[in-house]
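Follow-up to my earlier ticket, as requested here are the two runs.
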Amino acid sequence: MQTETLSIKCEQLQEKANEIIRKHDDFIQGIYTDDIEQKGKVLVFKGE
């Protein structure tokens, strides 16, 4: 199976991640991501 991939800027990915965090049922005020690091095929989101 072949999947299509799209390029996205780091800032766009952070924005989307923070949006998902805010919409989560267990959201706690003040939680956010402010850095993303790629380790092999894994993305690591860092923040408060």
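Run two:
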Amino acid sequence: MKTVKRHFAWLLILVLSFSLIGCTQEPIEETSMVVEGADSEETQAVEVNTESTGSSLEEQVAAYFENMPEHIYKMSQKDFVEMVAAGTDATILDIRSAADYEASHIKGAVNAPWGGMAIADIMTKIPMDQPVYLYCVSGQTAGQAVHTLNLAGFDARSINLGFKFGISKVEGVDQVLTTEATTLTEDITVIDPIVKKAIDAYYGGLAAVKDTRFASYKVSEDELNAMMEADEDFVLLSVRSEKDYLLGHIEGAINLPFGKEMAAGFADLPKDKTVVVYCYSGQTAGQTVAAMRLLGIDAVSLNGGMGVGSNAPIGWTNKGYTTVSEVISEKVTAYFENMPEHIYKISQADFVELVKADTDATILDIRSASDYEASHVKGAVNAPWGGTAIAEILTKLPMDKPLYVYCVSGQTAGQTVNLLNLAGFDARSVNLGFKFGISKVEGVDEVLTNEATVLTEDISVIDPTIQAAITKYYAGLSSVSESIFANYKISEDNLKQLIADGEDFVLLSARSAKDYALGHIEGAINMPFGKDMAAGFASLPKDKPVVVYCYSGQTAGQAVAAMRLVGINAVSLNGGMGVGSNAPIGWTNKGFEVVQ
């Protein structure tokens, strides 16, 4: 009955339209769309003439964003599986290949494979009076398709992370899977002719890019990297949140956050060059690409987006490519340029005297919990290195007093002191740590205890971007814990082996130019630790390890933390070059050779 009424309504509109044409003095210009052939690898965007008596295509695309619901045209994989299990009345589209569909698909799903006209052709067979849910392999092409479906008038949502990374991972999914096909054969829905023509051209254009690097209106992570290395002329657009963009983005990217106001920014984008769009996993970038292409912008989305844990191994960061952060970069630069004479360190003797004098300060012991329990400096709070404990305690540390941090040898405290200062604390690390420094000071016993001090109240506010970067830094320790770069360090023996094996890495001495000339590890370049150091980071590669060493490992620790925050895969040499007071660790303390 609803279909009969809908057809009758369209008939009435057509009759009225012909009556108006007979009366008007101005002819109605026919909407036209041209898809140019692909003569090269560059994709050809849809060109649209949207002058009509109704809403233009541009207005309808804008409305898609302006009227965006909270669910942003997506549904979680878990909610989707539960909905199917409950037998909710809905239309489900599986836009994976016919082979994938035949192997296994969601019960009731209709197959309209991506890559040709199948999705455009099936729209007239989909009912308008119930929601439409669609999924692909990873969520990315479904992102494109969901935009076209909503533009056509459907209440459509794509399933988060698609079948492979989302649906198939849901507990209990087997109960809603089948190999039995569902088909739609009857034309029951009328699509706005302007929109239908645009959608037909959109899907028709896939054939023109099928054998190019922009197949499916996407680009692979490796191809994007190659484009960047070749310095090709294109626009790189992040549609992630402003906060996440500031925290880290692909170098050269501009930001236009996905959301209600997004379409207003499309006018600023060029139509004479490719626009590569990326989000988190590729799904909202897919929606964005579809909208842009319908407006004549030659847009493609980055495969897997920035990359999230759940869509590994696809995505930029999951592939091991680096990101940059303006906020972090500025903080890192300022850390060095504003370096005080004490270079963010305090001598072990001065530190012990400070504790004896009961100076008002916060003390952080980042050794293991067992070391802390055995003996620690009075008043010290334990936040063990190796997990996210240090990141988690930041809000509990007061900003209005100096902060002193120590570890075993001074090296991981060196990393930590950089991060603490970036977070806004007046922090210094204790020279040579507890084992080689503090415990050797005469009279130290009177400032030692095994009575714990704890901090429980949140009293400080950390810049969210900085907090996120620091949390990410410490969380990353787990990914290297079983490697030769555990703790973002490398042992003397492992470095010696890397050199012997001719491995491709950079060896960097952060000692003074004078001391470098007197003797350095063979193959090392020199970048002295100090106020001008950050300026040299731009000359370091981001696609290979950078092993940094200083005297005892402590200032190298600071340098490593700073480098890693700006995307350099840096680690410090255990014990540095080696000094008498930190024997037996350190390169020369191990008896290894240096050259002049």
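The only thing I checked on run two: Residues 108 and 182 are 6 Å apart (CA to CA). Let me know what else you need.
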